Amino acid sequence: MFPNHAQPLVTAPAETSVLALLLTEGPLSRVELARRTGLSSTAVTKAARPLIDDGYLHELPPERTAPGAGRPVNPLAVTVDREFFVGVKISAEALFGTVCDLRAGMRATADLRLGEDRGPEAVCALVGELVERLLDADPTFRGRTRHLGIAVSGDVDRAAGRVRYSVLPGWRDVPLAGAVARSTGLSVTVENDVKALTAAEHWFGEGIGTEYFALVTIGAGIGSGLVVNGQLIAGAYGVAGEMGHISIDPAGPVCHCGQTGCVEAIASSDAILAAVRTATGDADLDFDGAVQLARGGDPAARDAFARAGRAIGTGIATLVNLLGPERVVVTGEGLDTYDLFGVHIREAYAAHCFKAAAKSPLTLRPLPWEEWARGAAVLGIQALFP
Ligand SMILES: [Zn+2]
User: Fold this and answer.
1) Which top-level group of life is the source organism from (predicted)?
2) What is the largest CA-CA distance in the chain?
3) E strands, the chain, where?
4) What distance in angstroms lies between residue 287's CA and the mean position of ligand 1's atoms?
5) I need a labelling partner for 180 at 20 to 30 A (CA). Which of 24, 142, 349, 377 fits?
6) 259 CA to middle of ligand 1, Å?
C-alpha cells in the first residue's frame, strides 16, 4: 500500500476479528460475536468501543431473541457510509471505476475508454481523471475517502506496488501505486485483477465464511485466485493460482507462455477461435462467427468448444484436488458461451476430481465489468486491516 505510512484502522487482534466479522456477515450481537471469535463478552465490548467512538460501528435498536429470553440485546452493525473506497479496473480497452461503502456496496460507477496511447503514463493520467470524476459523484465521497484499489491483469507485485508485466504496451515493471498515490493523494493498493476479484468474493460474495475457496475466470484468459486458511494467497513468487498454465496435453498447442498444452492455450477465446479457423479454413472468422457456427451445429466448431470445456474442467479438477476448496466460483466473459462447453466442463471436472474433492460445487457467477472495479475497491477495505 502506498504511501507506506498509511495506517490500518485496526491493529489489535480482538478489534480485527470483531470488525472483520461485522463487515463480512452484517449485524451481530455481542454474545454472537463472542461465540464466533472465541473472545469473552467483556473483550468484545472493549474491542468495539473505539470503533463505535470513531463512527465505524453503531448499536442497532434492541431486539428480543425469544419471548421471555431475558434482557433484549443491541446488535452491533457497521456504519457503512463512515468511509468510502475507490476501485479501478484497468482493462485492455477501458478503465472501470466504482465508489464502494464499507460493506462493498457500490455507490457510484464510471468508465473511461483508453486512448491511442496505452503506455503507463497515459493510463496513469486517465486513472487520476476517473478517480476525480468518481469522487465528484456525491458531496460526501471526497472527505471520507482515503483508499484506492487498482486491479490489472498480469504479474503484479502488490507489496512493492509495481506491475511487473501486463499485456498493455510498454507495461514492464511500472511503479503504478506510487505514481497514482502522488497524483490522487490517496493511499493505493495494486493487485492482479483475478486476485482482487477473489478477495471480493471471499469477503462479500459466494466465499463468505470459507477457509478454502477458489475463483476461476474463463474467457480471454484463464485465471484463478485461491484462498487458503482464510487468506488470499500469492505464493512465494506471486504466481500461485496460475491455473491457465497447468499443462494438460503434451501434444497440445504451444501457449504464449512458451509451454505446450496449457489450459489457456486450448480454452481461451483466442485459442478456441484459432482452432475453429484451422478446422474450417476460414482465416477471417472472428469469435462471434465461431460461436454462431457452433450454435448452428457445425461439428468442427462444436468440437473446439468441447475441447476447451474439457481443458477447463480438467484444470479446475487439478486445482480442487490440490486445494480442496469448499466451493469454486466460475466467472468471466467466457460464461457467455457456457451453453457450448458447460456440459464438457462439468463432465471433465467430475471425471478428474479425486474422491471427496468432487463434493466441491462449481458455482457459476456472471460478473459484469463493474464487479471487477468493486474487487479493486475491496483491496482498499482490506487495507483497514493489518
Ligand atoms: Zn501457458
Assistant:
1) Bacteria
2) 77
3) 57-59, 76-78, 84-90, 94-100, 106-113, 145-152, 155-157, 162-165, 172-174, 187-192, 213-217, 223-228, 231-232, 327-331, 362-364
4) 21
5) 24
6) 5
